[in-house]
Design a protein that fits this description.
The chain is of the alpha/beta class. The chain contains eight helices and seven strands. 46% of the residues lie in helices and 15% in strands. The structure holds NADP nicotinamide-adenine-dinucleotide phosphate (NAP).
Length: 246
């Protein structure tokens, strides 16, 4: 449906789950995908195997988005190797659920560091490069929790609400430079991310979803590709929800 030939796309956490579907969507549309992961070598090997037909268009990099110096080095590498890129998808994210009163201080900070501070680092260095190019698309993967709120997810919901606010502010700063900044906000998507949820809780999630099913990673990827496409050129500072009506 889309043509991203000649474009270079960065997808953080692109080795598995939603990020994998996003990276694969761009690869199928002809883009070069720079896929980052933080630790899961097995999932990364699987990604490479599943996408062997696109091998010449895939560059996999290990990157912990919570490490400022690593992010800085990553963008130096991009600059040296590719000169520029067109699309950044901030997809990497974690959750460490617990009711707030019982939440460990480290669980609060870990979630904030990956989901919010990591996005700040990625955007900071990305924008410096995109401004020179006078074109760019930044898409952050939020979550329906940012506006819905959910028991046991105060850290996660707060991090995703912060990420949306970051995107809105940044969109205003870079609009005149040809850069759009948007969010895609999924509801419950069938990935490892929600695999550890107990069956009873799963059923209660399903009961709350008007479409009565979890979403697929491809359904999220389709929205990301749309926001990265020329057809979305007048959309910035927005959030596109993929929630089955939640
Ligand atoms: N699944 C859902 O229902 C759902 C709903 C709403 C929003 N989301 C959001 O969608 C995004 C992807 O979710 P998912 O379900 O695909 O999750 P997932 O399957 O658990 O994958 C998480 C990804 O983030 C990477 N990551 C974790 N910590 C990192 C760090 N410090 N630095 C860099 N990368 C890191 C992981 O790399 P490794 O593989 O190396 O660990 C992995 O690629 C997240 O932002 C999540 O909040 C998911």
């Amino acid at each position: 449906m889309y043509d991203f030939r000649g474009q270079t796309v960065i997808v953080t956490g692109g080795n598995r789950g939603i990020g994998k579907a996003i990276a694969e969507g761009f690869l199928k549309a002809g883009a070069r995908a720079i896929v980052t992961y933080s630790a899961n070598e097995a999932a990364t090997a699987q990604f490479t195997q599943d996408n062997s037909q696109f091998a010449q268009n895939i560059d996999i990099q290990k990157l912990d988005v919570t490490k400022y110096e690593e992010v800085e080095e990553f963008f130096k590498y991009i600059d040296t190797k590719y000169k520029s890129f067109e699309v950044l998808v901030n997809n990497a994210g974690i959750r460490k659920d617990s009711v707030l009163a019982m939440m460990k201080e480290s669980d609060w900070h870990d979630v904030m560091n990956v989901n919010l501070t990591g996005v700040f680092y990625m955007c900071k260095f990305a924008v410096m490069s995109l401004i020179r190019r006078r074109y760019g698309r930044i898409i952050n993967i939020g979550s329906v929790m940012e506006r819905y709120g959910f028991e046991g997810q105060a850290n996660y919901a707060a991090s995703k609400a912060g990420l949306t606010a970051l995107a809105k502010s940044l969109s205003k700063e870079v609009a005149t430079r040809g850069i759009t900044v948007n969010c895609v906000s999924p509801g419950f998507i069938a990935t490892e991310f929600i695999q550890d949820v107990p069956d009873k809780l799963r059923e209660s999630y399903l009961a709350r979803i008007p479409l009565k099913r979890f979403g697929s990673t491809e359904e999220v990827a389709a929205c990301v590709l749309f926001l990265a496409s020329p057809e979305a050129s007048y959309i910035t500072g927005s959030t596109l929800e993929v929630t089955g009506g939640l």
